[in-house]
Amino acid sequence: MLFSYYLKKxxxxxxxxxxxxxxxxxxxxxxxxxxxxxxxxxxxDKLGVQIYTVRNELGKDFxxxxxxxxxxxxxxxxxxxxxxxxxxxxxxxxLNKIFKDNDVVAKSLHIGTGITSPDVKGTLTNGWDxxxxxxxxxxxxxxxxxxxxxxERKTLDQYKEHAELFNKSGEIAKKHGIQFAxxxxxxxxDKIDGQVPYDLLLKETDPDLVKMEVDLYWMxxxxxxxxxxxxxxxxxxxxxxxxxxxxKDQFFTEVGNGTIDWAKIFANKDKAGxxxxxxxxDRCRDHTPIESLKISYDYLKQLKF
Length: 305
Description:
The chain is of the alpha/beta class and 305 residues long. The protein folds into 2 domains: 2-33; 41-302, Divalent-metal-dependent TIM barrel enzymes (TIM Barrel), CATH 3.20.20.150. Helices cover 43% and strands 15% of the residues. It has helices at 2-29, 55-60, 62-72, 92-101, 128-137, 156-175, 197-204, 216-221, 226-232, 262-267, 269-272, 289-302; strands at residues 48-50, 76-79, 82-83, 86-87, 105-111, 142-145, 179-183, 210-215, 239-242, 244-245, 252-253, 276-279. Helix 5 (128-137) links the parallel strand 5 and strand 6 (142-145). The termini are far apart.
């Protein structure tokens, strides 16, 4: 019996040694901040916001609204409404001061093709060089074609012309250290002559010159699986628009209140090549835009994937 007792003690000692060794080795493989509580889980650190969500508020009090976004906790911004060197009548120096005072950074800017608005200065076809120069002076990393007006998207030949324009725009942007990108809606997934225009844009544009800003709401509404696109075109989707879809009627809703599987999508962010994402809600139905952005922020801050 004495031999049996010491045998059991020896076996238990060996088991404990192996267990502690495995745990210690595992601890070396992961930062202390994720071990053991969040082992194998990802989380979101910094969050961006597309200021289009608060467009009405910005028109009334631009700096005050930026301060509110910073107060929620948003770290970086995507801008829009750039016209002839200004955003909401603020020039580059004014914008830089406002952002610095509120401890936020502008990372990206939405811009139009200018094809259906040839008199507007600050588009891909009118004043692009000046726009890119302004973007560089703001410290932007991306400039994005935001939308194709309906007359611009009727034929595949038009999409081929856009692809050529995007490549040229990307070359100019690259000279200033800025990456060009294209932002989708759902219409790019409606087939024309048996082809998906979005796929044509991916094929006809240079992956180094033209990245994609994938709007996850609009891609989903277009009947597509974002993760499938990430796997087909890895590294192409540098920017994301994060907005959710109501289960009731597919209307815009706060992130986490809808049907989109955010844990699955964020778990594939490296495959996508995502560098930044921007929370956006085109229209807010149940809350004010600021309230909606706070709800989305709080959800994403606790998301594990």
